[in-house]
Amino acid sequence: PLGDWRVWILTSGRSSGKTLSGSQWVRKRAWEGYGPITIVGETAADVRITMMNGVTGILSVSPPWFMPAYEPTKRQVTWPNGVVGYTYSLQDPDQLRGQNSATIWIDELFKGQYPEEAWDNANMGLRHSDDPKALITSTPRPTHLMRKMLKNKNFRIITETIWDNADNLPQSFLDDMKDQYEGTRIGRQELLGEVLEDVVGALWHRPMIDDLRVS
User: Fold this and answer.
1) pLDDT tens figures, 82-139
2) Distance CA 21, CA 18 (A)
3) From start to end of 13-115, where are the E strands?
4) What is the mean pLDDT of residues 67-81?
5) In what order do the strands lie in the sheet with 103-107?
6) By the 8 A CB rule, do 90 and 115 touch?
7) C-alpha distances in angstroms, 65 versus 29, 31, 48, 68, 79?
8) Cα 66 to Cα 133: distance, rounded to the nearest angstrom
9) Cα distance between the two ends of the chain
10) Is the pTM of this model over 0.85?
């Protein structure tokens, strides 16, 4: 996003290109020297398989002259210019406690385990360098954390749909997604990136539950 911002939230449906956006952004930040970099996935396997080694992961988008060394057993990524990144899982948010970062990329925050704990620990460490920034890429979920973030005027929110990435997807796949899911709740959430607050006809609504929360 343009302008002055600290946190960018990219909510989108599947196949919209959010993982590629995250990988390219991390590569750019590493090239500019904004480390340490914190990379957080839903699980350790998601970090390794999707965010690092996937077809749109960090290793896939890195050119040969700026290819990082990835050591999964150490949960460490090291770029040729000396910028270092560390990988974490939303399943263990306490690992993020005390980690200073100049750059943070969290994938699927709103559908992972312990999202609020993970975000709080990561955000409190986003204080290194003269321009610390975080990117959250996630399929939307109507969680308390997401609704709170969407109301934060200091965050930059961008929503993409599967159709925004249509030029890079097989037409047969797009036709199938449209035939099966157009107009359905799962299609609105997973393909259009909409935040669906409530099930139609539900007796209890999330705003009602949130208003009545007690500590």
Assistant:
1) 999 999 999 999 999 888 999 999 999 988 888 999 999 999 999 999 999 999 998 8
2) 5
3) 37-41, 69-71, 76-78, 84-89, 103-107
4) 96
5) 69-71, 76-78, 84-89, 37-41, 103-107, 133-138, 7-12, 155-160
6) yes
7) 16, 11, 22, 9, 10
8) 21
9) 36
10) no
